[in-house]
Amino acid sequence: MTPLDTDDLQWALQRRLEDVFVKLGEKFGDLTGRVETTIRPGVSFDDVGGLQQAKAALQGFTTALTHPDRYKDWGITPPKGVLLYGPPGTGKGMLARALAGASQAIFFRLRLFNLTSKFGANTGELLQEILRIAMGEGRAVFLMEEVDALSLDHLLPPPQAREASARLVAALCEKLDAIDPSARVLVVAATSRTDALDPALVAPGRLDHLVEVTLPDPAAQQEILDLMRTRTEKSAGRPLFEPLDYRSILPLMGGMSGADISEILRRALEAKVHRAAKQASAPLVTTADFLEAVDGYKRVRGVVEKIRYGQYL
Ligand SMILES: Nc1ncnc2c1ncn2[C@@H]1O[C@H](COP(=O)(O)OP(=O)(O)OP(=O)(O)O)[C@@H](O)[C@H]1O
Ligand SMILES: [Mg+2]
Question: Which residue range forms the structural domain that includes residue 242?
Answer without folding.
Answer: 218-308
